[in-house]
Structures are given as C-alpha cells and as structure tokens.
Amino acid sequence: MDYYNILKVSRSATDIDVKKSYKKLAMIWHPDKNPANRDEAESKFKLISEACDVLTDPDKRRIYDNHGEAALKSGVVPPPPPKHSHYPYASSSSSSRLNRQSSTAYHYNPRSPHDIYTEIFGHDDIETGAAVRFGRNPKKKKAPPVERPLLCSLEDLYQGVEKKLKITRTVTDHHGKSRTEEEIVTINIKPGWKKGTKVTFIEKGDQGPGVIPADIIFLIEEKPHARYIRNGNDLIINQMMTLVDALTNKILEIPTLDGRRLMVRLSGIVTPGYEHVVPNEGMPLSKEPGRKGNLKIKIIGIKYPSSLTPRQKSDLRGVLS
What we know:
By secondary structure, this protein is α/β, with parallel strands linked by helices. The protein is built from 9 helices and 15 strands.
C-alpha cells in the first residue's frame, strides 16, 4: 500500500503537508457527506486515516520507508547489517550478541480514525463527527448556506479568468470567545459560465458551538456590457447605419470580447430590423469545449442625412428611379 499516493503527497512531504492533504481528503470522503455511497466513503476514509497515522508518526514512517508495509504491520523489522570484526575468529560472547540481534521486535499500534480526525480538526468538531463515528447521526445542525454575489464582466465569462477572494468568518468557542479568521480562496471562472452558476466552499461560514458552519456559495452575476447583450449562448450587438452604408453592402468592423476585430460584410440592402448571424462567434459552451453560440448583428435604425442639396436630390432620383 502506497501511503504517499493515498494522500497525494511526495515522499519528502512534511508533517504539515501530510496533515493539510489529509484534511482536504477527509472533507471529501467524510461518510456523512456521502450518504449515497457510504460504504465506499468509509473505506476510503479509513485508508486516508491510516496513511496519515503512519506518515505523521516518526517511528512508523521510518519503518515504512525503510522496510515497507508488511514489516510495519507484522512487527518484525529486519536488523541493521552486523559490523564485522577485524579478527578472523569471533569470541563466543560476540557470537551470542549477533544471534540476539537477528530480529528486532516492533509493536504496530494504529490509531483510530476518530482520534486522528479529532487531532487534525480540533475538539470543536468532535460532536459532528465527525465522520469517523461511523453509523451515528451527527448531533449538530448545519447553518443555512450563505450566498454572495460574484460580479463578472462579459469578457471574464467569455475568456475565463482566475479570481482570488477573501473569506472572513467568526469562530466562537464553547466559552463564548470569538476570533476572526481570514482565508484567500481561488475561483477559476470557466469560459461560458452563465449568470446563476454557483461555486460552493464547504463549511467556510461562521462557526459556533453546536452548529456546523454554513457553506459559502458564490453566485455568478454578469455586469452589463457597453456593447453586447448576452442571450443564452448567443451574443447580440445592436448597430445603427447610415443610409449610404445600408444601400452599399457595408463591411462592419466588430470588436470581439477577446480583442479581435471581426470584419462582417452585410449583403443586399439593409433595412431597420435586419439581422445578420455569424456562426460560432457567440459565447463559449462551457460543457462543449471548442463550440460557441452565434453572434447576431441587429440593425436597429438607419441614419438619414439632415439635408441634401438640389444637385444631390437630382442625382439620388436618377439613381433610384
């Protein structure tokens, strides 16, 4: 059994690294968090607890690193190589000492998952169980989730971006003493995410005696854009055109959300209400990488000249008649 692989740490990991990884995995495989597959969760939880026990105990870790799991659990550790005498004939007393060193006894005494969980998470979490009290119902109630808006520009939701946010919470112990904790969390906004997408951080809310901390939920909200309107996976841009452009197959230059300049030729005579669709230039589809919605260019009005000279009017009649 590879304890390092179970906890996703390197062989040079420190105690802090091991406990940090254990804490993350324990939150995922806590049996009370996996009612639908409790048996699998309990099995995985016991494995990560065993790995943490071995890798945070100097003696157990040394034996495991040098001799492996079998030697650790059997209690029989091979002795170090004997130091050979410089003399060709060893005395009977030295021979007997070598025989007594032929094996080294070690008693493997694993700690319970409950004890490990309590040590890592602290006594405030004992009653919730801590998922290690397999089969028992938690006594604490969980606080209702706390939702916080996360404003994102349309550019962020088009290209994707990493946002770092600070979570501040109050922790109150059984004696009524409070302290403030701060944590920086990272949210990776995926291209194509929509308004209403939720990002949840488990039990990061205020903590008090007898209550499981609330989940913190960040709710994606879109900032209004100066040029574009989003409609599902499509992008809509409203354009005004001059009369000349409307009559002469104008090429429009459309700035995209990722900084490109899109050249779009409108065919035929354009009238108010005309819509031109550019495939695959809308918002990315978050669940279908490589695909996008459409870009819809809507002509909402024609700009007419404020005045014409007699000559221009005559020329225009000649062209249009």
